[in-house]
Each structure stands twice: as C-alpha cells, then as structure tokens.
C-alpha cells in the first residue's frame, strides 16, 4: 500500500539556500519512491503581502508547498499571531488535500523543532498521526543547544516527541543522546542518511598522497576548521608539499583565512575554494588522496561517508556519528580539539596510503547503506505508526 505522506521539514533546500537540509531532501526522494508525498516547507519571510498564499512547485515526483511564516515582530504576542496565520495556511493546505482525495495518512516531521509544532497542531485539528526523523546535533552534549533553550521551548519539544507515534534517527549515536534526555526510547529505529555516488567515480589510489580534502560549512564552533589550520601549520615543516582544499562557505570564512594567512599557509598549503555545485563534488573526491573531518560534534557526516565510498581514507575526530563507520579499514580516528593528534593522523594516512583499498572500503561501507534498506526502514516506520 502506498500511503499519503505529508512531510514537514524544519530545513529544506530553497531559493535562498540551495544546500539547506539537502540530506533531508535525499530522504524525501527515497520516501517518494514508496509513498505519495507532499512537502510543506514553512520558512520565515519578512513580507506579508501574500500571507494567505501557498506557492506550489514540483520537485522530482512530489509537490512542494512553500508556506511563509511571516514575522511581524519579535514580541511574544506578535509571534503567536504569526503562528496563527501559519496554522491558517496549513488548514487551507489540508482542506485542499482532502478535497482532492489526498488526505495525509501520516505527517512526517524532519527535525522535531520547529516543524513538529505544526505537526502537533494538525494532529489535534485533523487527528493525523505524525512521526519524527531527527537530524539535529543540538541534543548532543558538546553542541548542547537543546539544554540552552528556554524552559518553554524545551517543554514544547518534549511535547512534540511525546505525541509522535514513532521516532527515527540517522545514527545510533543520536538515538542514544535522545534517550539520555528522556525524549525517545529504545523502540526508535535508525535510518541512515542517503549516500549518492557517481557511477564513474575513480577508486584507485591517487598519485599525490599529500593532497587532502575537507568539505564543510565554515562554522568554526562546530567544524573546528581552525584546528585543521593548526595541524597544517605543524605539518608544513615535515611534509613540505602538503596541500588541503577546503570546500564550503560560512560565517567564519574571513576569520579562518586570516588565521591561515598568519600561519603563512594560505594559498600555499591551504586553499579555501568556497561553495561548489553538488554535481562537481564527485570530481573533488576523485582528485584528492584523503579526507579530513575535524568537527567537534556530528550526528552523521554525509561528506565523510561519501569520501569513504569514493575510495578516500578519512581522518576524523571522535565527534559522535562518524565513529559508527570509521575504522582501521577506511581511516583513523583522532582526539577532539587536538591539532597534534590530527597532524599525527594525517601523517599516518599519508605514509600508509597504499594500505587503503578503495574498492573494498566502498563495497563494505555500502553494504549497510543500501537504498533498499533505507526504503524498508521508512516502510517500517509508517507501518508501525498505522498499526498502532
């Protein structure tokens, strides 16, 4: 049976940010192959000219309804008024779906807060059950944003989780953290992120073992790119031709470029390439010899997984999610916030590059991340919801 699924994501690619929640879209693409999918993406807007409108667009084989959460002010009462207007738009959407014979069987929330607030409302108004797939790192102890929320927001999030019929997480690590916070239980299932590969990818060992790659947002608090710069500054004395390309953009780019310049490694040993289209990422994997992730916390890390699947050994911090799949066969784990240990890990991979078999790494990794397994996971999530 193909269920009617209304997906409400907290993040989703849009005209303002095409990379926003791209991993959620990949989940949605998979779900659309087993269910009839509609997406209601509720995003903030400063314009109130079209507050009653719902803009429709088609992506792949599902419809996207872009709903503006028009912010008219920062006060508590104005925010509640803004929510009321958004609830009104959701009413319009659900009535349209009911009239067309497409009333949702299940609402699927991706990232519980704030999207779960709207699922709570629809559950109360139309008696539609909802499930949650969580991606957010804010529940992890190093990130700790959940604990820094006000008591009222934490109460709302707990309510969202309590009323959900089922939960899924992208890693065992994230599931454990939510259980510790009494937000979820052992009954929750793990459905990993989707790994997309270029069929023409090259998995042979690369000719230049000193050529590394990092793909991340330039947010130093979470990604600790400055730690990579410190490690390269250490290594430049022993590996004179080391070169690291950093792909991505973000709030700390200028600061990081300044640090690299102070170390005299900018555009000599470290190159900030900015954002590049997703279609060009496979070429980056094929032209580098190893991959670095120096994050302080991660719930999964698609870039690390893709690097392994493209035959690159990885040097990764013990930051959570990646610890479930990084092992001696495909890379090394290093200590958090320790540029000397990171430098040691990079040195080991460079000196032992020939021991990493790209074909074997990719084959063994993908065994646990097959698209069919992900489909089965979502079917299990939906079946258990309607059975209960």
Calculate the mean pLDDT score and round it. 90
Taken as a percent bin, the fraction of beta residues is 15-25%
**Secondary-structure element order, as H and E?**
EHEEEHEHEHHEHEEHHEHEHEHEEHHH
The helical percent reads 25-40%
Largest sheet: 8 strands, mixed
Q: Give a count of the beta strands, DSSP E runs of length 2 or more.
A: 14
Task: List segments where confidence is low: pLDDT < 50 over at least 5 consecutive residues.
Answer: 46-54
Which strand order do you get reading across the main beta sheet? Answer: 3-4-2-1-5-6-7-8
The secondary-structure class comes to alpha/beta
- Using only CA atoms, what is the Rg? 22 Å
Number of helices: 14
- Straight-line N-to-C gap: 17 Å
Shape: globular
How would you describe the overall organization of this protein?
By secondary structure, this protein is of the alpha/beta class. Helices cover 39% and strands 19% of the residues. The protein has 14 helices and 14 strands. The chain is globular and about 65 Å long. The two termini are 17 Å apart. Mean pLDDT is 90; it is low at 46-54.
């Amino acid at each position: 049976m193909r269920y009617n699924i209304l997906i409400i994501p907290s993040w989703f690619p849009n005209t303002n940010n095409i990379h926003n929640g791209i991993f959620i879209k990949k989940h949605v693409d998979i779900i659309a192959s087993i269910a009839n999918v509609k997406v209601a993406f509720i995003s903030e807007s400063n314009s109130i000219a079209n507050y009653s409108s719902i803009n429709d667009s088609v992506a792949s084989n599902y419809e996207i309804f872009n709903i503006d959460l028009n912010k008219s002010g920062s006060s508590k009462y104005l925010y509640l008024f803004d929510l009321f207007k958004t609830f009104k738009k959701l009413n319009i959407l659900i009535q349209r779906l009911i009239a067309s014979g497409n009333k949702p069987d299940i609402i699927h929330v991706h990232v519980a807060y704030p999207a779960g607030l709207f699922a709570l409302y629809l559950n109360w108004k139309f008696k539609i059950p909802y499930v949650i797939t969580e991606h957010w790192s804010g529940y992890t102890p190093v990130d700790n944003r959940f604990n820094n929320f006000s008591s009222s927001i934490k109460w709302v999030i707990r309510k969202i989780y309590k009323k959900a019929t089922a939960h899924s997480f992208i890693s065992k690590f994230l599931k454990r953290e939510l259980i510790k916070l009494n937000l979820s239980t052992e009954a929750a299932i793990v459905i990993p992120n989707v790994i997309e590969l270029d069929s023409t990818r090259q998995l042979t060992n690369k000719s230049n073992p000193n050529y590394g790659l990092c793909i991340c947002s330039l947010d130093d608090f979470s990604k600790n790119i400055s730690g990579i710069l410190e490690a390269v500054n250490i290594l430049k004395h022993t590996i004179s031709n080391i070169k690291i390309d950093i792909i991505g953009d973000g709030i700390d780019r200028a600061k990081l470029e300044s640090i690299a310049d102070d170390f005299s490694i900018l555009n000599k040993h470290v190159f900030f390439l900015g954002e590049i289209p997703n279609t060009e990422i496979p070429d980056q994997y094929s032209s580098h010899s190893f991959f670095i992730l120096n994050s302080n916390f991660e719930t999964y890390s698609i870039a690390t997984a893709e690097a392994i699947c493209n035959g690159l050994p990885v040097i990764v911090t013990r930051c959570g999610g990646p610890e479930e799949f990084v092992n001696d066969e495909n890379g090394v784990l290093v200590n958090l916030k320790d540029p000397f240990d990171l430098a040691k890990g990079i040195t080991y991979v460079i000196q032992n590059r020939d021991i990493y078999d790209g074909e074997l790494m990719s084959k063994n990794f993908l065994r646990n991340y097959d698209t069919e397994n992900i489909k089965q996971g979502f079917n299990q999530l939906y079946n258990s919801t309607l059975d209960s």
